[in-house]
Amino acid sequence: MLAGLYLRYVVFREEHPRLFAWLRRYAIFLLCLAFTALYAAISLLKHRNFQSHGWDLGIFTQHFWQLSRFELGFNTVRMVPSLLGDHFHLIYFFIVPLYMLWRDPRMLLVIQAVVVALGCLPVYYVALRELESRICALCLAFVYLFFWGTMELIFFDFHEMAFAGPLVALAYFFIQRERWNGYLLTLPFLLMVKETMAPLVLFLGLYVLFFRRRPFEGLVTCLVSLGWFYAVTRVIMPALSGGQDYFYFMYYSHLGKNWVEVGKYLLTHPWVLVRETFLPYHKTKLLLFLLLPFAGLVFLGPFALVAIPELYQHLLSNFFPHWELLRHYHAVFAPILVFSVLEALPRLHRLLERKGKRVDFRRLALSVCVLLVVLQFPFTLSRSTKTLFDPDFYRLSPLERTGHRIVSLIPPDASVCAQDPVVPHLAQREQIYQYDGDTYGAEYVILNKFLDCFPFTERELVWEMAKLYKDPRYTAYRFGNGWVVFVIKPSFDPLGKARPLGDVDTLTPGE
Fold it and tell me: Distances in Å between the alpha carbon of 398 and those of 49, 393, 409, 444, 503?
């Protein structure tokens, strides 16, 4: 089959030389553009179909809405005084001007699609310089774009970790070309993605120090990352969160009282580290999903060192979503593992030659790159990406049409408490709450048992709705298709802004 494909390639090249030359020159940009469109379509369709989430798109939508108004207000979805006290993602300040052009959560989804897709460009040019083959470079750029972790990020709304992979790729681009000023300028942007990027930057410094033999740049990277992590988690974030200690240490508190104790405990109890690496079985599954799509070659590439801190942030956590395959947590591994394979190829070639097998390096590189492309499909298409083959994903159902009608009826200055998938559609306001059994005195409460019921089960949400029917503060309005809107009565509304929602059936409290 491969021989047949190659023959067709040769025939096309001979019959259409000008078109072939144009495609050869601009193929990477066409690939980048195609995946930008794919990523944006996935995100926008999910949001349109009420499959986006208050946690995280609703959180960030309110945050950007506040930033666009030059405010650092209380985030009512995450329930924190300042979102920068929850995670220190200064990178967002650079895209606030874009958000101000179109104040809408869909703008965030489009920006994310562009940023993630652009990460394929440094991957491509690194591979092109290393392998001197445009086909190999295109294959590895495709691997980055289609890696299951990248696709899971796109299918899970909007997140600051979308910036991590492209910036890691850019840092390696400068490392490969020994443009150390460019490399050092990339580091602040990496650190501004999130406070938890500091360990990754630390190991990036160790890689530069020991494998690139650049002591100044390596030591500067290590010292800056350690100083940044200490200043952010011990000084800046506690000040922004009202004096509370770093919240996310709770995921590692089973290993010690602070980071130093955690390190000592793991060094003196190495069997615990081994156990936490593979058990429960979900962690082993995660490791297999990271290694098998790259044929296990990452072990031969020194750049795999950079994956260690991010990997063990997940494996050592007692928070299950950190080591399951869903969500955004694993997209950053895409460029790291691709570059590890690139570094592994010369070593693999030397290993084969030592065993007496004479293999042309260019053929070996092409074979490995094609193999990696093929390996992505079973892993990526077994996850959220299989949704692309569901015809309902592209249709707007009556339930969703009704939901958009309800959203259009809510006054822009009203306080709202809504179910998780509804929150992103109404998050551009001062008070937007995710329903967790408390209405927070909101003027409008919007629920639908047929949507994602997080943090409840469907049965629990039905009980919650039954309690709200009996709540004397609210009048219930049914819109059909499972939608119920509870509107606060004027006597319980201190601001007097709540009003009925028009031509719908009014239910008496308790009905």
Answer: 11, 13, 17, 22, 18
Distance CA 438, CA 468 (A): 10
Which of 427, 336, 410, 331 is CA-nearest to residue 140?
336
pLDDT for 359: 85
Structure confidence at residue 5 (pLDDT): 63
- E strand or H helix at 49, and its extent? none
Phi, psi of 189 (to 5 degrees): -70, -35
The pLDDT value recorded for residue 496 is: 57
Query: Judging by DSSP bridges, how do beta strands 416-418 and 432-434 pair with one another?
Result: parallel
In which residue are the tokens 């096309």 written?
Answer: 12
Which residues, given as ranges, of the chain have pLDDT below 70? 1-6, 9, 12, 493-511
- What is the Rg, in whole angstroms, of the alpha carbon atoms belonging to the chain? 25
Burial of 58-70, coded b for 16+ CB within 10 Å and e otherwise, reads bbbbbbbbbbbee
| pLDDT-above-70 percentage for the chain | 95
Residue 154: alpha-carbon gap to chain centroid: 7
For residue 300, the SS3 value is helix
Write the CA distances from 427 to 51, 83, 393, 412, integer angstroms.
15, 14, 23, 10
Residues 6+ apart with CB under 8 A from 237: 84, 85, 86, 88, 195, 246
Spatial separation of the C-alpha atoms in residues 85 and 107, rounded to whole Å: 24
What contacts 255, CB < 8 A, 6 or more positions away?
261, 262, 265, 266, 272, 316
From 155, 37, 41, 49, select the one nearest 424 (Cα to Cα): 49
For residue 299, the one-letter residue type is F
Classify residue 423 as exposed, middle or buried by CB count within 10 Å of its CB (0-12, 13-18, 19+). buried
* Cα distance between residue 169 and residue 125, in whole Å: 10
Q: What is the DSSP letter of 212?
A: S
Reduced to 3 states (helix: H, G, I; strand: E, B; else coil), residue 151 is helix
DSSP 80: B
d(CA 142, CA 31): 8
274: enclosing H helix or E strand: helix 270-278
pLDDT at residue number 47: 97
Q: Where are the beta strands (DSSP E) in 362-496?
A: 416-418, 432-434, 444-448, 474-480, 483-488
The model's pTM is 0.93
- Per-residue pLDDT of 36-59, as tens digits, reads 999 999 999 999 999 999 988 999
Backbone φ and ψ of 42, nearest 5°: -60, -50
Q: What are the respective helix, strand and coil percentages of the chain, to the nearest 5?
A: 65, 5, 25
CA nearest to 335, candidates 135, 118, 155: 118
- The whole-angstrom separation of Cα 409 and Cα 47 is 18
